[in-house]
Write a structure and sequence with these properties.
5-stranded mixed beta sheet; 436 residues; 2 domains; 6-stranded mixed beta sheet; SBP; D-Maltodextrin-Binding Protein, domain 2; 22 helices; Bact_solute-bd_prot1; alpha/beta; globular
Length: 436
Amino acid sequence: MESYSRRWFLGAGATTLISAAGLTACGSGSGSGGSGGTVTAMVYGDDAAKIQTAQVDRFNGSAAAKKAGGKVRLQKIPAADYPAKLRTAMGSPNAPDVFFNWGGGSIKAYQEAGRLIDLTDTIKSDAVLRDGFLRTVLDAGALKGRMYGIPMRGTQPVVLFYNKTLFAQHKLQPPTTWDQLLDVNAKLKKAGVTPFALGGADIWPELMWLEYLVDRIGGPQVFAKIKDGDASGWGDPAVLKAAQTVKQLIDDGAFGQGYSSVSYNNHGASAAFAKGKAAMHLMGSWEFSTLLGIFPDFAKKDVGWCAFPKFDGGSGDIRNVVGNPNNYWSVNSRVSNKDAAIAFLRDCASETYTKALIANGDVPTTTIAAKMLDSSPNPEFAKYQYQMVQQAPAFTLSWDQAVDPGWQQPMLTEINKLFVGKSSPEQFVSALKGLK
C-alpha cells in the first residue's frame, strides 16, 4: 500500500487534463437523476480495491439497497489507466454514477461542467455522513468550500521521520521549531551525517518541503487561494519566504550532495535513511510501510516520527498537516439512482468498512476508527497518524493534486529548478504567478 494517491500523479499527471467544454453535453446511464436502477461505481484498481469489491457485495445484499431500489455495479480500472479511462468515460454516455478520485484539482473540471452533485447539504442533513468522518478530511476534498466527495480509503499525511538511534548517539531531540531544526542540521553535518534524505530525481518529494513551509509561515489560507485557481496567491510573501528558506537549506547542505540524482521511486532515499547516511526523511506516511517491507529491522527499532516544526514568527499552527487527506467517492450529477448512490456512500462510515481498511494497513478517517486501531498491523504508528489528522486545524491537499491540472507540470518544473539552483526564489515566485 505504498501510495496509490502519489503513484497516480507520477504515472498519469499529464492524462488528467480534461476539457470542461467536452463534458457538458454528455449524459450518464439513464440520466434520470432519480430512483431505481443499478448504480455504476468506478474505482482505481489496485490491491486495495478488494475492500471496495467486498463493500459492493455487502451493500447489494443489504436492507439499504432494497429500500433505495437499486444495487451497485463496480468497475475496476487498472491503476495506471485510471485517470485517462475516467476522463474518457466522463465525456461519454456511459459515465460512472459514482467514481473514485483525489479531490481538489482532480475533479475541478467535472465540477465546473456541472457534472458533480454538490453533497454539502446532503452531508449536513445526514447524521451518518455529517458525523461519520473527520471534518478536516471532508473539508480537504472540497472545492471553494463546497463538498463533492466522501472519504473512502486511508489517510496519508506527510510526516517528519527520524532515526532514533542516530539522534541518541548525537544527543539530539526532534525539532519543534525552525531554529531547533537548523541547530540539529548543523550538528549532524559536523558529525558527517546528511541531515535529510531527499529523492530529488522524482521532484514531488521536494514539493513536500514547500507545502509545509508555506503553511507554517503563512497559514493554510495562502494555498487555499491558489487551490481555488487564483494564481496571484503565489505572490503571497509566505511563498517567497518558503522558497528562500529552501534555498538556505540547500546552501547549508541539509540534503547533502547529489540529492537531485537520488530517486524515491527506486527506494534510493529510503535506503539512505535506513542505512544511517541521512538522519531524517520528510515523506508521506506510506514511508513506514515501505521501510517495513525493505528494511524491517530498521523500521521496527530505529524509526521515530514527529510533526513538521513551527516556523519562528510564522502564523501556521504546528498541528496543521499537508499530504493526501484521503481518496473520495464523488457522484455524477446525472446519476441513475441517487438514493442508492447516497446509501452506498453512507456505508463508508460503517464499522465493517472501517475494520476492512484497518486490516489492510490503512488508517481510515471515520470517527469510529480511533477505538479500532489496536487491530492495525502497526498500531503505534497508525494511532499517531490518526491523532495527527484528527487534531489538525487544517489538512492541505498535496499541491500537485489540489491545483488545476494545467498547473501541475509547470509547477513541478519550477520547484525542481529552485531545488537544483536553476532559478532564484524571486524567479520561482514570478514564474508561478504567471501560470494561466
